[in-house]
């Protein structure tokens, strides 16, 4: 395990770790308490820990989907009755979306819970794969699978705060531009948690 991933594993399992509930309301207080009933969901922050450096696996959703079309996300989705835990959900969805079997992933912990404006309570599960993977994407849901160096999210100037109009109001959100990719919204918000845990080291 690389030093960076080993450090992350230690931080995620620390008994004195401080937990908080994050969400779209962090930058937009009007979104707080917008939903009385939250639907449970989970995503997998999958780190490929092979040379030359650890990378995070992300997907670009297809443009025809009814929710979050074309956006960049981590593999995941809502918990189904057959899911025994958020970890089981994240692993199942990852296999369904990008073809990575659960046996290839070693889970090392969770990030903070994230609540979305659209009414989901998301558990971000962190997993590590110690070998390069062959991706088999679900063409209906996933347009592309790509990897971003973990160090990119730790670079001091990589995190942006942007805004756009939503339902007649200005909405603020985090983003991590990367080449031609624009990583924003809930995915970026969860990655801010990862960045804060590890610190900006690059």
Would you write up a description of this structure?
The protein is of the alpha+beta class. It has a domain at 3-25 and 34-151: Alpha-Beta Complex (Nucleoside Triphosphate Pyrophosphohydrolase). It contains three helices and twelve strands, in the order αβββββαβββββββα. The chain has helices spanning 3-12, 86-98, 185-198, and strands at residues 22-23, 39-48, 55-61, 72-73, 76-78, 106-110, 114-115, 120-129, 142-149, 160-166, 169-178, 181-184. Strands 1, 2, 3, 4, 5, 6, 7, 8 and 9 form a nine-stranded mixed sheet that branches. A hairpin with a 4-residue loop joins β7 and β8. The protein is globular and about 45 Å long.
Number of strands: 12
CATH superfamily of the domain at 3-25 and 34-151: Nucleoside Triphosphate Pyrophosphohydrolase
Overall mean confidence score, pLDDT: 91
CATH class of the domain at 3-25 and 34-151: Alpha Beta
- Name the CATH architecture of the domain at 3-25 and 34-151: Alpha-Beta Complex
- Give me the number of helical elements: 3
CATH topology of the domain at 3-25 and 34-151: Nucleoside Triphosphate Pyrophosphohydrolase
Rg estimate, integer Å: 16 Å
Beta percentage is: 25-35%
Which series of helices and strands comes N to C? HEEEEEHEEEEEEEH
Compact summary:
By secondary structure, the protein is α+β, with helices and mostly antiparallel strands.
Q: What is the topological layout?
A:
Elements: H1 3-12, E1 22-23, E2 39-48, E3 55-61, E4 72-73, E5 76-78, H2 86-98, E6 106-110, E7 114-115, E8 120-129, E9 142-149, E10 160-166, E11 169-178, E12 181-184, H3 185-198
Parallel strand pairs: 1-7, 2-8
Antiparallel strand pairs: 2-3, 2-5, 3-4, 3-9, 6-8, 7-8, 10-11, 11-12
């Amino acid at each position: 395990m690389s030093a960076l991933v080993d450090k992350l594993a230690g931080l995620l399992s620390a008994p004195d770790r401080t937990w908080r509930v994050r969400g779209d309301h962090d930058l937009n207080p009007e979104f707080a308490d917008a939903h009385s009933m939250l639907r449970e969901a989970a995503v997998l922050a999958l780190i490929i820990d092979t040379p030359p450096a650890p990378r995070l696996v992300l997907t670009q959703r297809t443009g025809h989907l009814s929710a979050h079309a074309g956006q960049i996300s981590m593999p995941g989705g809502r918990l189904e009755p057959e899911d025994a835990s958020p970890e089981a959900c994240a692993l199942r969805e990852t296999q369904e979306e990008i073809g990575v079997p659960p046996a290839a992933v070693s889970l090392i912990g969770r990030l903070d819970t994230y609540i979305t404006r659209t009414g989901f309570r998301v558990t971000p599960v962190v997993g590590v794969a110690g070998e390069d993977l062959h991706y088999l994407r679900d063409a209906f849901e996933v347009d592309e699978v790509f990897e971003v160096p973990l160090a990119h999210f730790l670079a001091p100037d990589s995190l942006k705060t942007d805004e756009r109009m939503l339902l007649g109001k200005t909405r603020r959100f985090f983003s991590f531009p990367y080449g031609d990719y624009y990583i924003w919204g809930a995915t970026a918000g969860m990655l801010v948690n990862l960045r804060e845990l590890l610190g900006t080291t690059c």
